[in-house]
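Database export, one record per block. Field names are fixed; values are copied verbatim from the stored entry.
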Amino acid sequence: MRQVTTPAHWRHHRVLVVEDHSAYRAMMGWQLDKLGLSHQLVENGSSAMAAIACRRFDLVISDCQMPVMDGYSLARAIRQREQDLGCERVPIIALTGNLVHDDPQRCRDAGMDAWLLKPLALESLRDMLMHWLPGAPAALCNQPPGVAALDWPTRDSLVELFGSPRVVDQMLRSLLTEAQRDTQALRHALNAQDASLTAERLHRLVGSLAFLGGAGLESRGSALISEVRAHGVAVNQRKLELFQSDLAAYLDYLRGL
């Protein structure tokens, strides 16, 4: 079997696997070990809820058909818990051997985000995790204060671009004021699960980023616009939250220029 590479930041993530078949549960554990992911294995939805009450997970993979508490009941219980406690939305991936009984619409209706078919190849699992696990931490987290990311503009580069320090100061004030309004409106749109308004505010923010150039967030924002328009807010919740976090770090950097 060819080597499967994974992002370095995955070592900070934890996955919960819910599967009643002991052999398949063990196989899932082996696959996650190969991918370098910390994980916990449980045999039904009731045990999963107990595990979630004790620690935070970045993603849940659950069989659909289980005794005691099946995957659909588990997904609904997790979504209700998130709503009641104001918790961050965790991706839930359905694990099924039969898309006739466990059809995609039934999975979505229960609050699941995607599904994997048994028997599960390691590469298929990795590809799914690449899409649904959180990305790397915000770009500023590991940098000293005042140090730009490689493709972020510096004050000198902006002065060279716009001609004078005075123009740069005026431009930054205007851009940051508009970005603050748009980020607040984006939060309201996300809370309301309003896909149209979310896409609209993302479009405005992407325009602000493109005005300065080279932020590295413009392409991510543009891709999110397409995904939100196609699939809605809930499916893209984690990506949107990560985008907001990285955008906030970038705007904080600009305020210091």
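Remark 1: DSSP finds ten helices and five strands in the chain.
Remark 2: The mean pLDDT is 81.
End of record.
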